[in-house]
Amino acid sequence: MVRRIENARERFGRAAMELFRTQGYSQTTIPQIATAAGLTERTFFRYFVDKPEVLFWRAGELEADIVAAIDKAEGDRPLDLATAALAVAGRFFDENRADVLVRQAVIAAHVDFQERELAKMHALTLAIHAVLVARGISQAAARIAAETSIVIWRVAIDRWSRDCSTQDFAGHVHACQAELYAVVLGES
């Protein structure tokens, strides 16, 4: 029987991000990640298929948090429901800023990771759409809100990544949503 090690994924994740930050993604090996985490290479493969998976393993967790936030939210305006949930889920970004910035830089530097990130964003779009429909929102309105919320999310991540001020991720999400409304309404 394989014994689970408490917080192994998190330990590997933190160790990998620190190594990616200090020596670069390409120069970092799985044995180095395992050593830095205080675990074995064999244990690494119990939790991750390969090194790139360290960059993407939280996507399902983040998606579940966003879906749960939409499901519990008050209100009936689909875009507001979706963006409020994205802002809440974005707390993880604020709490783990250094690691998120490293992850973003690694993804930006590798085309195959960009493709994988787009696939994760598509899966998140489908999940947002499904939970909005389950709340009684029409298919078309749910689709528009889900797709639009992902655009807001991506612009907010970019701005948050470049912002050296103390504005949290939620502030960037809400600012992007306000700008979207201004664009749609033809305001400057």
UniProtKB/TrEMBL annotation:
Keywords: DNA-binding, Transcription, Transcription regulation. It comes from the Bacteria. Residues 6-66 form the HTH tetR-type domain. InterPro entries: DNA-bd_HTH_TetR-type_CS, Homeodomain-like_sf, HTH-type_TetR-like_transc_reg, HTH_TetR. The keyword Signal does not apply. Residues 29-48 bind DNA. Gene3D superfamilies: Tetracycline Repressor, domain 2 (1.10.357.10). Pfam families: TetR_N. PANTHER family: HTH-TYPE TRANSCRIPTIONAL REGULATOR RUTR, MYCOFACTOCIN BIOSYNTHESIS TRANSCRIPTIONAL REGULATOR MFTR-RELATED. This is TetR family transcriptional regulator. It comes from Sphingomonas abietis.
